[in-house]
Write a structure and sequence with these properties.
This protein folds into three domains: 2-61 and 391-439, Uridine Diphospho-n-acetylenolpyruvylglucosamine Reductase, domain 2, CATH 3.30.43.10; 67-178, Uridine Diphospho-n-acetylenolpyruvylglucosamine Reductase, domain 3; 181-381, Vanillyl-alcohol Oxidase, Chain A, domain 3. It contains 14 helices and 21 strands. It has helices spanning 22-34, 85-93, 110-115, 153-159, 191-196, 198-204, 236-259, 264-273, 284-287, 308-320, 364-376, 391-397, 401-411, 420-425, and strands at 2-3, 9-11, 15-17, 39-42, 57-60, 67-71, 76-80, 97-98, 132-138, 144-147, 168-175, 177-178, 181-190, 207-212, 218-227, 278-283, 296-304, 330-335, 350-358, 380-381, 438-439. The strands form five sheets. The chain has an eight-stranded antiparallel beta sheet with strand order 16-13-15-14-18-19-17-20. Strands 6-7-11-9-10 form a five-stranded antiparallel beta sheet. Strands 1-2-21 form a three-stranded mixed beta sheet, with no helix packed on it. The protein starts with a strand and ends with a strand.
């Protein structure tokens, strides 16, 4: 049975195919077409929305991994679409190259991360899809299709963030930078002070973000800057912070909060009391990503950068009413605007606010309330996270929405890569389905 990382989306009876080559993938697509079955593609299963769920066929990219070739002089690497981000770091570093930026975790496939608009933080840094130089797809009938700024530029503009709805990505060419090391500084700050100084902190650091702990005035700040300092060894302090405190101990506290929800505010305050200043230095691909072993469900919104602080204050007031048992920190990040049609950052520099709930705990009313606040501030949903929007609402949020729908029709006129959820998302069904726990036959 296929499940996503949080266990929230499940397809207990759907066939999962893992082709070992592009030729095998083409055969699988042609067979699905003959059987008139829909096809959805999965990377690492780290989307919280039911993007993959189908009653047809799930195609896993797990066997389509690895670097195909690297042009070190041009700074371009061709990689197979199923390649996990964690594997790319060392492979690229061996050639003196690195990805410009990464997201909070590195276990996703490159295709899954780019196709959903996954991002890191830094107002001068776009989401991961902005690093794409070219793409290759297989269409529903197994034909190979390529896209770049000069070859089918419309497909390139719409295909870098496409939710797997245009075809199956087989190859992604990435624009790279020379390898670099980062110094990460963690600190503790008052929330209002952090918001007041946000402009300064964002401008002063290559990357900056913070985590606000509910029911407290405290935030954990994280700032990254390029450095020539030597790499730190994985000493006991780093192991204590990254593994024991942020995963083992926090997971145990979450289990207590799940069993006794009334303790959630006290647990959050206890976690805030443990925040302290620390520094680490390592290769960029190691410093930008974090180990995440405590499972949760997540909602995330991209807002115009100037609206983020007011939205967070409203969410804080919502949480202060204690209607929801919460102990997970809220994450607050910055992302540069871009020109990708379905990117949540299209046409504007953005602030991203992510809210979480420990797996198995109720989240629907909390997420609904956060969604209402973020929509009021011009928010757009992260495609891989929980939200309840559908075609008509999304069309108002994305200026190139109709262009993308036309591109989807051109690339997949038979709707082979659609599912009930995607039909609702794109406004192709008359009846909207609310987003709640999703399980397919």
């Amino acid at each position: 049975m296929w499940k996503n990382w949080s266990g929230y989306v499940a397809c207990p009876h759907t066939r999962v195919l893992t082709p070992g080559s592009v030729a095998e993938l083409g055969d699988a697509l042609r067979q699905a077409a003959r059987d008139e079955l829909p096809v959805r593609v999965v990377g690492a299963g780290h989307s919280f929305s039911p993007l993959v769920a189908t009653e047809g066929v799930i195609v896993s990219l797990d066997a389509l991994q690895g670097v195909i070739d690297i042009d070190a002089q041009a700074g371009i690497a061709r990689v197979r679409a199923g390649t996990r981000l964690w594997a790319l770091g060392e492979a690229l570093a061996a050639h003196g190259l690195a990805m410009e930026n990464l997201g909070d975790i590195n276990v996703q496939s490159i295709a899954g991360a780019t196709s959903t608009g996954t991002h890191g933080t830094g107002i001068t840094l776009g989401n991961i899809a902005t690093q794409i130089a070219a793409l290759k797809f297989l269409s529903a009938d197994g034909r190979e299709v390529s896209a770049s700024p000069t070859e089918d530029p419309h497909l390139f503009a719409g295909g870098r963030v496409a939710l797997g709805s245009l075809g199956v990505l087989t190859e992604i060419s990435l624009r790279l930078v020379p390898t670099f090391r980062l110094r990460l500084e963690r600190g503790k700050m008052d929330l209002e002070e952090c918001l007041a100084r946000a402009g300064e902190l964002v401008a002063r650091n290559r990357s900056f973000e913070f985590y606000w702990l509910p029911h407290t005035d405290s935030v954990l700040t994280k700032a990254w800057n390029v450095t020539d300092e030597a790499v730190d060894k994985m000493g006991w302090q780093r192991y204590l912070s990254d593994v024991i405190l942020e995963n083992t101990a926090f997971g145990a506290l979450c289990r207590v909060g799940k069993a006794m929800p009334s303790l959630c505010p006290a647990i959050s305050r206890f976690c805030a009391s443990l925040l302290s200043r620390s520094t680490q230095v390592d290769a960029s691909y190691s410093m930008l990503s974090t180990v995440r072993q405590v499972r949760f469900n997540e909602m995330e919104w991209s807002l115009p950068a100037e609206r983020g602080a007011d939205a967070l204050r409203e969410i804080r007031a919502l949480i202060a009413r204690r209607e929801f048992p919460l102990m997970f920190p809220l994450e607050y990040r910055w992302v540069r605007g871009d020109d990708i049609w379905l990117s949540p950052n299209y046409g504007r520099d953005s602030v991203h606010i992510s809210v979480h709930q420990y797996v198995g705990m109720p989240y629907e009313r909390y997420f609904d309330a956060v969604q209402a606040i973020c929509l009021n501030h011009g928010g757009r949903p992260h495609w891989g996270k929980v939200h309840t929007l559908a075609g008509p609402q999304l069309a108002r949020l994305y200026p190139r929405w109709d262009d993308f729908l036309a591109l989807r029709e051109r690339m997949d006129p038979s709707g082979r890569f659609l599912s009930p959820y995607l039909r609702t998302l794109f406004g192709l069904d008359a009846v909207e389905r609310p987003w709640r726990r999703h399980e397919t036959a």
